[in-house]
Amino acid sequence: MNIDVQSLREAGATVQAAFVSLGGLIGVFSTLAVFYLIIRASEAFGRRSPTNE
Amino acid sequence: MQDVFIGFSAVGWRELVMFAVGGALIWLAVRKEYEPMLLLPIGFGAILVNLPLSVVWEHEGAAGFLKVLYDGGIANELFPILIFIAVGAMIDFGPLFKNPAMIFFGAAAQLGIFATMIIATLLGFDLKAAAAIGIIGAADGPTAIYVANKFARDYLGPISVAAYSYMALVPLIQPPVIRMLTTKRERTIRMTYHETGVPRWLKILFPISVTLVAGFVAPISAPLVGSLMFGNLIRESGVLERLSQTAQNELAYLVTLLLGITIGSSMRADKFLNVTTLMILGMGLVAFVFDTAGGVLFAKLINLFLPTDKKINPMIGACGISAFPMSARVIQKMAAEEERGNIILMHAIGANVSGQLGSIIAGGMVLALVPLVAG
After folding, report:
1. Contact B318, B134 (CB under 8 A)
2. A26 to chain B: closest CA residue
3. Nearest-by-Cβ selection for A53 from B125, B200, B217
4. A25 and B110: CB-CB below 8 Å?
5. What global pTM score does this model have?
6. In angstroms, rounded to a whole number, what is the distance separating the alpha carbons of residues B375 and B265?
7. Which ipTM value was assigned to this complex?
């Protein structure tokens, strides 16, 4: 992993930007996917909960 | 005698151009009502800081009031954080809870950030400057200011002006891009909306969960996400109504007032009047176009896998940008124009509030990844 990061640091700015873009998009999608699961899980829990408002 | 006229002798053509730029921003705010709360103070700040001797910035070694505000509110990122608390107190995630799938448009419509970053490097900018320029595509002023301040302080002025100007121009930017990428039939897709109650505990749990998840996934995004979610928790707790109202009104207005004029003070002629500024303004527009395209194309992709009666109106994808609630309003207006009575507003709002989440997460990702590869 360290070697990969080192080679990225030596790469051109566009290659670095492409890496950040790929990583960034994956990161945003996965983080929002976790939020999605939290909402869905809360819904499922809420349906079973007798205190649901 | 010479001292009496020093004001006239100390001003050059560059300063005069900046007065015109400041005047144009004020004109856009007053005449066109484009983001007046930001563009008017920014325009006036630009005029103030370019006055002869720039006394409001620094004079005879002493900091002027704009420099004091800059150091105390922008350089240490305080103003964007306070704005996030205010924005968080204004956001109702209810429409998102009722249709959680909309959250993914908040991710897809961040495409502009990353596409613009790559384009900026092709134009010769280094990675940090390119990232700061790309973040205009967050369509989120505080995030743009926050990231630009970290990576490219010299470009803070043009980046902020581009971010706020294009947010105001969303009604002009998004419709042609959407029309180009969709068919009339797609734009008339109707979506059903079920009005269901959202339990209060979910509204309270959500900002806490989001803060925890974002804090673990991208710890550097904690100030952005944490302040936004703190504001939202105040709103949804139901026991801090006065604080919620204060955050939504007094805090928002006061910080916006100071933020605008302070951003304007970063538009000094010697730093602002160059080709780079024009390039940044151009790339900002590109970022908004790619954001819109990213959201729309993602919706079209999803539609390939959905049954006919469950298809998504692809215009909803364009609402994944953070410009809230303007983007949702624009899309609803377009839907109604395409087919009378087609109401997709609540879905659009769901995607639009997701855009606010997506933009700060994207900002956090950029803040985390860029130093990793740039060293």
Report:
1. no
2. B107
3. B200
4. yes
5. 0.87
6. 30
7. 0.87
